[in-house]
Specification:
- Helix 2 crosses helix 10.
- The protein contains ten helices and five strands; from the N terminus they run H-H-E-H-H-H-E-H-H-E-H-E-H-E-H.
- Helix 8 links the parallel strand 3 and strand 4.
- It has two domains: about 170 residues, Glucose-6-phosphate isomerase like protein, domain 1 (Rossmann fold, 3-Layer(aba) Sandwich); about 25 residues, no CATH class.
- Helix content is about 55%, strand content about 10%.
- The protein is of the alpha/beta class and about 210 residues long.
């Protein structure tokens, strides 16, 4: 995992200031997944796209082939030899992750009936369990719906990773670790967020499937 982080810093020297926080975030994710936990991700706008992106890296093979859990391929074949053969040959291992921005029916119903800013928090309330992790992505670190989700996560016994820009922000207060990339303009912050969460995805994948 350290070699992956070293490679990131070599390619993006500006992220040297985030080295310790990235390593801590990777440790939090590894601990959660090792204990049967899952990752919830949340963000707005471009950060919503990032929240979806990291789920894609976790829920299938990224750089290393994620293998199926022991015994699952055999169980698929035993359940139905024809379809099981297809499934065992093409399914990949997965690190469970859910992006909270993608549930349109739920989100619009909750926003219409209840409190729009609590939409992510409502999903944390429903999905979250002790030992899970919330990754809150906010270029400012002050997005109200992400902050409410972070409070809900902490109350659930979850760990919170913040991914923000360099300015002091409220998300730090509720995060077990906050990765503050060295930029302040929204698009520049987002440009640095992608290599950070790619690095986290690679580090966690390497730990479990390397």
């Amino acid at each position: 995992m350290k070699a992956i982080l070293d490679d990131l810093i070599e390619r993006y020297p500006v992220l040297e200031c985030c080295r310790e926080q990235i390593l801590l975030a990777a440790d939090i994710l590894v601990e959660s997944y090792a204990g049967g936990g899952k990752l919830l991700t949340a963000g707005n706008g471009g950060s919503a796209a990032d929240a979806e992106h990291i789920v894609g890296e976790m829920m299938k093979s990224f750089k290393i082939q994620k293998t199926l859990p022991e015994g699952y391929a055999e169980a698929l074949y035993a359940t139905d030899p024809e379809m099981g053969s297809v499934l065992r040959n093409h399914l990949q291992g997965a690190l469970p992750a859910i992006a909270l921005d993608g549930h349109i029916s739920l989100s619009t119903a909750y926003m219409n009936d209840c409190e729009p800013l609590l939409c992510f928090a409502q999903q944390v309330n429903g999905y979250g369990r002790p030992g899970d992790v919330l990754l809150g992505i906010s270029t400012s670190g002050n997005s109200r719906n992400v902050l409410y989700a972070a409070v809900a996560a902490r109350a659930r016994g979850m760990k919170v990773i913040g991914l923000t820009g360099s300015r002091d922000n409220r998300l730090e207060k509720f995060s077990d670790v906050c990765i503050k990339v060295p930029a302040t303009e929204t698009f520049k912050v987002q440009e640095l967020h992608l290599p950070v969460y790619h690095c986290l995805s690679l580090m966690v994948e390497k730990h479990f499937y390397g």
